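Please fill in the sequence for the structure shown.

STRUCTURE ENCODING:
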């Protein structure tokens, strides 16, 4: 079943006598035996395949259209498992009429693509004849249809099935047209074995977000042909691996350009061609399994598109590094980067991964304006109307109706005329199609109002299907807020998604207590949001998000206005959101603020009200994901907001002084053109996508007065004002030297002046005791210890030094007449070591700073160090340490 009511099977079963007009009876495999009448709508005798459409009741109404694919990666160590389900004769002989799932693998190069050899992994019949009944069964790889079972190969002990690749099916005359007519969506061939890395286009829905999605390809491509030709020429270039960049503002057509390039390379218009030369897709933000080495073993030339590349540097480095390491004379690989601007990040990518060809790298910048907006408006209107009619005829979202004009005082106000930007023209065109055939009688002043109103009807349909319409009818404004929060926060896991829903409920009921009904429906609401905007196939994320950016930005601004600008102030610092979600939220807000000034002011007020938690995150986001001019304007607004909002939020003078220093440092970094690492991996559907194969992107930390990165444990010498740092460092150094001298004296007294330790073997022990104290102070003062080895590297040496010092002290006391059972003696020597080591650690950190490594440290001396610094700060607390809550921990793979 390739779509609701649409069945693909073999012709010799459906029409054994060649009669294409005959009726065929079909039923679902897991049904109770209800049969449905079907008619043949397409057939191909050479392939022995037919396409059936059921009449009357549609079976499989909740089934999404099947995705079509092929196998392109020839990596034997990563070959995916394929599955075919059918009714083999051997199962019937045992008395069972249940379908049989058969697993196996396919080598993509077998029989030159004319047929695939499906090598069975599990139970098989004794002879090839036992496979009878499997003809026409679909072979799926990663939930993508890649072939149709054809025949059993003799001579392979029934261990091999010959299957017909669907690539041949899509080349068959009339099949694509028949499938498009029946499903409302043209089939596209994609690399099935690379689907764990690449995202697929969204499933069709009658909603504004789907119709405006550039990946849906509703409006035919036009207006950027010269850029497309340049990129096609770049793809055919001589280099084995090459990188190009396309930049432009939001809505300039970057994603549509890349989609068209993929379509022309991977699905050429010449369906009779025997070779489909290219393969590829959009790199997922959260790949199911980040096996980038699969891309280096493609048997076809490969094009990988990386959207929002400026915010995905960790993932991008891992991808390009593995391609360079594993690609050995194979097919061409092209990586196309899409970004809003080409700044420091693009220079670094060229320098690190283009091997001397950095200056010749391809960079195309899209023009923000159209040359003929009126012609594009007419063309887009026709395209939207045709796609809506096609989806309606294919019974997608059955019962959908366009908006009707409302009899209000605004009924004579026409829709706002479009500007000459691509996104505004398409918004106006779709609004005119959805509201009324005559735009002169429109109700809304702006096209986005029409589209958001239409999108809300889509939400209501899904909520009604899940029994939640009553809840949202009572909780006015809750559903738009949750959809806006879904776009802002994202969710990688169900736990994060439910936490975001709980946060939304608390923000909605910020003046009251959430109702019991709303709290009880947390799981159902989360599931509904996941169904509204699911994560694209190929992504491991839990949530998708409303698109395009301009529509989501308008929704966020509208929700913020409806809540008197309290939405962002409560959401951004909400404790239920994870650090990854908070990073993603800041990224989305910065993007939205580019076109929504009210959102920018609300976000600046929220940051000023919670500087410890949000300010470092904001400065890093601005540096990595905006132009320098935009970042400077943002920081200036933050400085103004700190003056007006900071005192109202109860921020003390120390916090305001620290916040001002942080903003000044951020401005200085912008002037110096510092290459700041991005905070997270933003996307249309999820937050940061941690990749197991590369380094994790973390915020560039704040720096103390000596240029040393300040972190959760880099509290010295950042914890004191500058005029006391050197004095305190000198004092601690003197005390540390006195500590070492006392340890040396104690060790010498215990070993050299005692008759019990008179052998030559004990001579190096006192110096070793001193060196061990220095080593532990180094580990906890300068070297930031990796968390995975914290027990071995931090606690065991510390315990050993403590026990050695305790033993020396006890032996020293006993050798001078003390009693070994004296409790006070044990407490004195046991408690002496820790403060001394703390003094040494602080002295070393004061002189040499902390060595940063990519992990979160777990120092054993954190508590005594904080106690000592707390006492020292009472002397002159003018330079407070950064709030630990604002330090972002590196994301770890799920």
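FILLED IN BY: designer on duty
SEQUENCE:
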């Amino acid at each position: 079943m390739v779509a609701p009511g649409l069945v693909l099977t073999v012709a010799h079963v459906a029409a054994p006598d060649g009669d294409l007009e005959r009726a065929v009876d079909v039923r679902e495999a897991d049904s109770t035996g209800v049969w449905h009448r079907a008619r043949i709508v397409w057939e191909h005798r050479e392939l022995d395949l037919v396409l059936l459409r059921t009449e009357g009741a549609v079976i499989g109404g909740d089934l999404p259209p099947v995705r079509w694919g092929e196998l392109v990666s020839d990596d034997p160590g990563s070959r995916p498992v394929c599955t075919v389900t059918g009714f083999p004769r051997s199962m019937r002989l045992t008395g069972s009429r249940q379908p049989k799932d058969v697993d196996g693998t396919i080598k993509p190069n077998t029989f030159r693509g004319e047929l695939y050899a499906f090598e069975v992994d599990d139970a098989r019949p004794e002879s090839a004849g036992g496979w009878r009944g499997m003809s026409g069964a679909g072979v799926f790889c990663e939930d993508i249809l890649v072939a149709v079972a054809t025949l059993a190969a003799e001579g392979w002990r029934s261990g091999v099935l010959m299957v017909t690749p669907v690539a041949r099916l899509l080349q068959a005359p009339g099949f694509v047209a028949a499938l498009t007519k029946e499903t409302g969506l043209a089939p596209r061939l994609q690399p099935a074995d690379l689907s764990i890395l690449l995202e697929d286009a969204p499933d069709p829905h009658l909603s504004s977000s789907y119709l405006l999605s550039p990946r849906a390809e509703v409006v035919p491509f036009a207006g950027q042909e010269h850029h497309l030709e340049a990129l096609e020429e770049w793809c055919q270039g001589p280099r084995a691996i090459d990188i190009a960049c396309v930049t432009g503002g939001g809505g300039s057509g970057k994603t549509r350009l890349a989609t068209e390039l993929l379509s022309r390379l991977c699905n050429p218009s010449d369906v009779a061609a025997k070779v489909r030369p290219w393969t590829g897709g959009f790199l997922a933000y959260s790949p199911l399994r980040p096996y980038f080495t699969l891309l280096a073993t493609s048997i076809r030339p490969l094009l990988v598109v990386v959207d929002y590349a400026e915010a995905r540097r960790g993932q991008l480095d891992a991808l390009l590094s593995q391609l360079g390491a594993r690609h050995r004379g194979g097919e061409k690989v092209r990586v196309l980067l899409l970004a809003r601007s080409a700044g420091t990040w693009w220079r670094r990518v060229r320098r690190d991964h283009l091997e001397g060809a950095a200056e010749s790298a391809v960079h195309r910048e899209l023009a923000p304006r159209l040359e003929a907006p009126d012609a594009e408006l007419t063309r887009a209107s026709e395209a939207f109307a045709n796609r809506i009619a096609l989806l309606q005829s294919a019974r997608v979202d059955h019962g959908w109706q366009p908006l009707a004009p409302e009899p209000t005082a605004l009924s004579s106000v026409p829709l706002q005329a479009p500007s000459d930007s691509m996104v505004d023209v398409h918004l106006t065109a779709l609004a005119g199609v959805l509201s009324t055939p005559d735009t002169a009688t429109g109700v809304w002043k702006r096209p986005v109002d029409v589209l958001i109103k239409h999108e809300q009807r889509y939400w209501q349909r899904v909520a009604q299907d899940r029994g939640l319409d009553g809840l949202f009818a009572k909780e006015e404004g809750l559903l738009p807020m949750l959809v806006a929060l879904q776009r802002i926060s994202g969710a990688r896991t169900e736990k994060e998604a439910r936490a975001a829903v709980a946060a939304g409920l608390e923000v909605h009921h910020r003046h009251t207590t959430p109702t019991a009904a709303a709290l009880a429906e947390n799981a159902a609401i989360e599931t509904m949001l996941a169904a509204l905007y699911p994560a694209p196939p190929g992504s491991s994320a839990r949530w998708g998000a409303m698109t395009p950016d301009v529509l989501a930005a308008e929704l966020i601004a509208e929700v913020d206005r409806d809540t008197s600008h309290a939405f962002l102030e409560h959401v951004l610092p909400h404790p239920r959101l994870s650090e990854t979600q908070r990073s993603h939220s800041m990224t989305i807000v910065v993007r939205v603020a580019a076109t929504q000034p009210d959102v920018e002011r609300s976000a600046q007020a929220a940051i000023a009200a919670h500087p410890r938690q949000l300010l470092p995150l904001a400065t890093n986001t601005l540096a990595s994901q905006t132009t320098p001019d935009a970042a400077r304007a943002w920081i200036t607004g933050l400085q103004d907001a700190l003056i007006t909002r900071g005192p109202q939020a109860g921020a003390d003078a120390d916090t305001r002084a620290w916040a001002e220093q942080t903003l000044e440092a951020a401005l200085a970094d912008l002037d110096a053109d510092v290459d700041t690492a991005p905070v997270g991996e933003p996307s249309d559907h999820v937050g940061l996508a941690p990749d197991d194969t590369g380094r994790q992107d973390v915020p560039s930390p704040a720096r103390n007065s000596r240029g040393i990165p300040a972190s959760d444990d880099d509290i010295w010498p950042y914890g004191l004002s500058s005029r006391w740092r050197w004095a305190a460092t000198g004092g601690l150094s003197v005390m540390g030297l006195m500590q070492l001298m006392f340890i040396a004296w104690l060790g010498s007294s215990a070993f050299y002046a005692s008759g019990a330790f008179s052998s030559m073997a004990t001579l190096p022990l006192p110096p070793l005791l001193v060196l061990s104290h220095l080593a532990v102070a180094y580990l906890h003062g300068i070297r930031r210890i990796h968390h995975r080895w914290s027990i071995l590297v931090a606690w065991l040496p510390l315990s050993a030094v403590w026990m050695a010092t305790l033993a020396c002290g006890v032996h020293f006391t006993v050798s001078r007449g003390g009693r070994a059972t004296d409790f006070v003696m044990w407490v004195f020597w046991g408690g002496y070591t820790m403060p001394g080591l703390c003094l040494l650690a602080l002295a070393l950190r004061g002189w040499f700073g902390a060595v940063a490594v990519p992990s979160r440290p777990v120092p054993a001396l954190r508590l005594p160090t904080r106690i000592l610094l707390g006492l020292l700060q009472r002397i002159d607390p003018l330079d407070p340490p950064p709030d630990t809550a604002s330090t972002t921990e590196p994301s770890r793979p799920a």
